[in-house]
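Contributing: when you submit paired examples, paste them exactly as shown. First protein:
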Amino acid sequence: MISIVLIEDNRLVREGIAALLNQQSDFRVVGALSTGDPELLRSNPPQVILLDLGLWEDDSLRISEVISKESPDSRIIVMDLLPAHEDIVEVVNAGVWGFIMKDATLDDLVGTIRSVAAGTKVLPPQMTSSLFSQIAKEAVEADESAAIESVRMTAREREVVDLIAEGLSNKEIAARLEIAAHTVKSHVRNIMEKLALHTRLQIAAYSYRQDD
């Protein structure tokens, strides 16, 4: 039986994933948390921890580093939309074992958990900012239809959109705006939800369209 703790701050998502995983005969969700307090995991560490990379009120990278150090028998799988290049590097260096896209199928999620529990690392291929920029430009040239011009963003969110369009990483955006990197990730997540976009590429495409 694979014991699992889920750390996800969206209650609907958290409860939905937990319910689906508990339907698997070889899974047992022993915790579904909104925050990643390592203290809650030390007494009875699970085999696998599913961790949302975009927690609003906590730093997922810090959580990964602490858990990897203090509970090395627990293998972390991070969940995100489309990660930036540096996000992948950071989580790998923090000791994360796996990565799963939030729009992955249930079969992919279940397979990733089983593979990581068995000792196999499951991580996405590296992405480059130059490829990101090229695809974003092509998306604009394709004139993708999206009724998003009327969506209102905060001034800070608009700044983040513009800097993503310039090809800056989360760390570079954080330095430019003098805010924490995990705050930048939260802004990106909020922008995606507001615009009903699913990738950072589309955020950049949106910014280019506004400048035309």
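Second protein:
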Amino acid sequence: MKLVRLIEGLDIINTSGDISGEVSDVCFSADQCAQNSLFVAVSGLKNDGHDFIAEAISRGARFIVYEKGHPVSLFSNGN
């Protein structure tokens, strides 16, 4: 599904980059991310998903939804 369609109707605070691509799946655990995943980073009771953003990207996540502010450099996968 196209990301723009998936987030349609949500109150978006900010976006960065191209949001017109296809989302293959939605994951909350970085180790379940694959090519073109949307990773949702939220603070949990035991772990903070924000700590796993870099791993999600390295596993192929193309889109990140997060609660906390992070510097853009965190989202870089070295390319």
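If you have annotations for the second protein, write them as plain sentences, like these:
The CA atoms of residues 38 and 63 lie 5 Å apart.
The chain has a mean pLDDT of 86.
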